[in-house]
Amino acid sequence: MNRNLLIAIVGVVAIGLGAFFVMGNSSNAVPGVTAVNAQTAAADIDTSGVMDPFLGDADAPVTVIEYASFTCPHCRTFHENAFKQIKKDYIDTGKVKFIFREVYFDRYGLWAGMVARCGGGDRYFGIVDLIYENQQTWTQGDPSTIANNLRKFGKQAGLDDATIEACLTDGEKAQALTAFYQKNAQQDGIQSTPSFVINGTTHSNMSYADFQRLLDAEL
């Protein structure tokens, strides 16, 4: 598929579902999450094929769900700092099942999610690391440049050109991902990113010390 056509298609998918901000908005409020559009998306679009990527023991006593955008600077800061300590102390030790749910502020965040998921479970979090580590550079330029930047992450993860292109041009997957995000964000009362649902209770962004206190209280 022509790359310019890809940009147009995914942009229309995004705008049609009302899920996106203008790129560069400094706010971290979650756009487009209302009862009306979330219910419409859930009713009209099949999201059964969208999986929740997670790290840790599936049967861990504590489940944490992070809602984060790939274009959100605060999400990058959490990922590069507090998350690493949480992974070491709680995820890798079998205490926490950590689910990552993508929030789409813009079409670029959606494209990033489509590339990350392209690698399947084995590659997903490795591509997520690349996306956050390079956030300040891959988000720069026109849409074609940004799409090419994301393609490079897929290649670094060992994906071939045909596989990456198939993922990026999957319009049905784009719709399903957006609907899945809207439905879950509405259900969990997500108003900003990053936000966290710890054993069913929603919390806003916090330091590692505050995270540790909440996790220990659940153990």
TrEMBL record:
Which species is listed as the source?
Answer: Litoreibacter ponti
- Under which name does UniProt file this protein? Protein-disulfide isomerase
Give UniProt keywords alphabetically.
Disulfide bond, Isomerase, Oxidoreductase, Redox-active center, Signal
* Coiled coil feature spans: none
Q: Thioredoxin domain: from which residue to which, for each copy?
A: 29-219
**This protein's superkingdom?**
Bacteria
Task: Report any Pfam family annotated for this entry.
Answer: Thioredoxin_4
Q: Name one GO molecular function term.
A: oxidoreductase activity
Signal peptide range equals none
Cross-referenced PANTHER family, in alphabetical order?
Answer: DISULFIDE BOND FORMATION PROTEIN D, GLUTATHIONE S-TRANSFERASE KAPPA
Family according to the record: Belongs to the thioredoxin family. DsbA subfamily.
Identify the PROSITE patterns for this entry.
Answer: THIOREDOXIN_2
Q: Does the keyword Isomerase apply?
A: yes
